[in-house]
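Assess this one:

_____
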Amino acid sequence: MTTWLPSLITATPAEGYDLAVKLSRYAVKLTQPDAAVRDRVRPEYAEDADALIAISQVVATHFATVAAANGYWRQVP
């Protein structure tokens, strides 16, 4: 069985951030599986400052999780 998320481990913080965005997008897709509905409502939140700030907070939460899973990318001696 193949999973869409085999690991939270990434090589770099940039890859970790990309993963955080992917996690956020996947959550939206699971919450609203109808692509036509997502496409229809996208213009409404695309210009809503509160909605954009909210998604930034969601990505930041996911990034904190990924960073913790990666030991904050610190090298351990």
Observations:
- Residues 20 and 63 are 5 Å apart (CA to CA).
- The mean pLDDT is 93.
- The first helix runs from residue 13 to 31.
- The radius of gyration is 15 Å.
